[in-house]
Amino acid sequence: MTNEGGxxxxxxxxxxxxxxxxxxxxxxxATPMWEERNTSVETIATYLTSLWDSGASSExxxxxxxxxxxxxxxxxxxxxxIVVVDDDAAGRVVHTLMGLGVRHPSxxxxxxxxxxxGDEPMDARISTHCHDVSNGNGERVCYEEVVLTVRGxxxxxxxxxxxxxxxxxxxxxxWWPGDPPFHDSTFEQVIEMGDRxxxxxxxxxxxxxxxxxxxxxxxxxxxxxxxxxRLSWWQELTAQFFDAPRFRRYLPNLSRLQIRYxxxxxxxxxxxxxxxxxxxxxxxxxxQAVLYAGWIATRLGWRRHKTIDALNDGAFRLRLxxxxxxxxxxxxxxxxxxxxxxxxxxVRLRSLxxxxxxxxxxxxxxxxxxxxxxADGMTALLRRVPMDAPREAELLxxxxxxxxxxxxYEDALRAAGILLGCAREPxx
Amino acid sequence: xxxxxxxxxPRSERSQEPHxxxxxxxxxxxxREGLRLERxxxxxxxxxxxxxxxxxxxxxxxxxxxxxxxGFLPPEFTVVGFARRDLSDDDFRQHLLDGIxxxxxxxxxKPAIWESxxxxxEYHRGDFDDPVAFVELAxxxxxxxxxxxxAGNRLFYLAVPPILYPEIVNHLDRAGLAASGEHRxxxxxxxxxxxxxxxxxxxxxxxxxxxxxxxAAVFDERQVYRIDHYLGKETVQNLAVFRFGNxxxxxxxxxxxxxxxxxxxxxxxxVEGRGEFYDQxxxxxxxxxxxxxxxxxxxxxxxxxxxxxxxxxxxxxxxxRAVKAMAPEDVAANTVRGQYVSGWVEGxxxxxxxxxxxxxPDSETETYAALKLAIESWRWAGVPFYIRSGKxxxxxxxxxxxxxxxxxxxxxxxxxxxxxxxNVLAIRVQPDEGILLRFGAKVxxxxxxxxxxNMDFRxxxxxxxxxxxxxxxxxxxxxxGDASLFTRSDEVERxxxxxxxxxxxxxxxxxxxxxxxxAGSWGPPAADELLGRDDRAWRxx
Lengths: 428, 541
Fold this sequence. Notes:
The complex is a heterodimer.
Chain A: H1 10-22, E1 28-36, H2 41-51, E2 72-74, E3 78-83, H3 87-100, E4 106-114, E5 122-132, E6 140-151, H4 158-162, E7 172-175, H5 185-193, E8 196-199, H6 207-215, E9 222-225, H7 226-230, H8 232-241, H9 245-248, E10 254-263, H10 287-300, E11 303-312, E12 315-321, E13 326-335, E14 344-353, E15 356-365, E16 368-374, E17 381-386, H11 392-400, H12 407-423
Parallel strand pairs in A: 2-6, 3-4, 3-7, 4-6, 7-8, 8-9, 10-13
Antiparallel strand pairs in A: 1-5, 5-6, 10-14, 11-12, 12-13, 14-15, 15-16, 16-17
Helix pairs in contact in A: 3-11, 6-12, 10-12
Chain B: E1 45-49, H1 54-69, E2 78-83, H2 89-103, H3 111-118, E3 121-125, H4 131-148, E4 154-158, H5 165-174, E5 193-198, H6 205-216, E6 224-227, H7 234-244, E7 258-266, H8 275-279, H9 282-300, H10 309-322, H11 328-334, E8 335-341, E9 343-345, E10 348-350, E11 368-374, E12 384-390, E13 397-404, E14 424-430, E15 434-442, E16 450-458, H12 459-462, H13 470-480, E17 486-487, H14 489-508, E18 514-518, H15 525-532
Parallel strand pairs in B: 1-2, 1-4, 2-3, 4-5, 5-6, 7-12, 8-18
Antiparallel strand pairs in B: 6-17, 7-13, 8-11, 9-10, 11-12, 13-14, 14-15, 15-16
Helix pairs in contact in B: 1-2, 1-13, 6-14, 9-10, 9-14, 10-14, 11-14
């Protein structure tokens, strides 16, 4: 990030950046433009305004980020507010944003609240990100990010600090990596500023509590979840089974749903396999599996019936009431280092029909998946499809394209909370 | 069948399915709700006639592979390549794979994914004039329906020269392959049949009518998808969103505010080994009849009642019908035809058109055409539409530029500011897809100086993602039965009837001389005069 050069000043970094750009050696760069300790919102806002002003010059007499002339076009399609726990996490956010910017150039405001730390209320660092536009003309598109460390009492009043720094008339998304402090007033303040709030339910310290808290959050904004986004390809593959009308008739008669998900070999919750993960480790690896179950249950109108095996070591079994059949929901972890903890490993749907049982299977196999249909007494329909594990930046990027409210997710979220609640009850 | 533990749901599909012939339309898939990929194709077989050609290798194979990667193709999807060359299934698969590895935006193909897809790829060897080949094709397709569950849905892609269309559609008909849905065979609903045909669709009005007639004798118009890949481009689709999704522009989209419209389709390339084809065709037939007039129609149409295929095409047709027919004596004054002579384009020497291989040394074919058209409607009366297209021009660009009327009063003239330039809105289709608005702004300082500035929206800046290739969009559209971006027979015929008088006047010599222009220039000076007479000038795109 900004000061990797071992104490190099921002101006020196900028000069290096220009040289590199001249030779086209970098495809994407975060360039530190300005930093100030013990600064004010007004100073930051003024600097942000001057950054794109073609008349402004840096100390060496060259214009700052040029919008015309040498090709630096500024772009912004949204504001993104990110709240992180410390400077390390802020650094990881900046890294993630570099992967994000090509698709969602935004003004990103990364806040590190440090209540009770020191007298100086606020430090700020401003960087610009530039990406090659893939038109072959060597043009670049740039946007900026502000990292704010807010201390002392000011850390309890973040909305007043952030609001003046937002670009007007653009949607504002709030991303809260890690385990959100649901009971903190700062949390509520920041949530209120967003048109959409993004979490990763796999980061919740207590999944059951987290799901229920998010589902009942008082808010004006829509909700998003990176764990839900990780499921999107699984959902697509599942839906594809039943796009063909001849297989759709099996859907009301589903009688079993088996879900397997990955856990780390060490069973350590601090397992890290993605250096770019803003909140490293997967505290709730069951999140995706239970959201998937919640999704199927709400789409097919299943209702809770009884607990067969109560939640134990990440596994549980429930009996649910489907429209035509009772359904066994069987969800369990599998120790593997072949997939990130929490990723789904396999989904098996079983149904009963006139010609016998039908089975619909998705099995992860490295970067691919085998998808199979055994139905209608036919030879199994087999195919192999891509199953890349998306990076956090890609997940975030997809979530940022969503409409403000995702009712299917919100239904699944509530259902996941209910299923997990049911699983925590003793077996009937 | 399993015991039902709850009362039978009256909406259950199972209880309504005593016989295929009376099966009602299935309920929608409840798992689809809210998913991103709502345009998933139905299970079907795509038969590519002319499968060993350039189009399959460059466009169709890569488009199918990218559509597969995007998750838009169902597992049952099957491809049958149909051509004369003696190839095995594996040879044809290799042909497709080579094209993907060479031309796909996602390349090379992932081996495991490709192998899985390739299991649904077959090759059918046969001559297009051999009825037996089509009977065998029908048997093969029935077998695929049984084995792979393609449900009788068939998409025929005619990747062959138009001269072969009548023969192929007639053989398809005789082999029982043309009927769709309930019309086929016993009357039982057995799936849909659609046919995609490539441009050029006809050579003039008469040949287009004859071709439409031949196809209509076999296929219902709703089964025919005439591809104009320009309509698959994101910016062209965005034109409708820009106009009808924003409240700002539609009120000024008329003769009261717009002075004139320029449509440019410029290519830097020459005939690129297509001399024989191009010498029979020319710029008017090759580009303006389809891309040029379609862009104009999308730009000028009234808001459709809905965004359905026929609503959209009805509105485009209305625009084409309102274009004033050119009398032979008006052709010379309102058109310019040109042909390039040797010059330099992008640092390379380009020979004269007449020196290109397979071009007649005394060829009169135009490599450049410029027209001034009038749309006689309440919205556009008095607004000239200038359309130009050419080869060996300085840059490759397609754009629609709207010149607005000048401000009604030269308010700043007294302060020494001369006439301010009119505002321009340029819609760039390719490359650098985007929209630019030019307006005057005060130069900061004590005096009053006004300078033009650009407000520039670029797709690449705001949505820097890989847009799907036009063929990906259009193939998927055809598979899901959305004909919005395909041209209808009446549109095609109307477009030809606009151009027919011009072609005839040019052929007879009444339409003005052929003007020569140096390769690398923006066309002949006569094209500048065409606008100059109206006190206007071409935009330098």
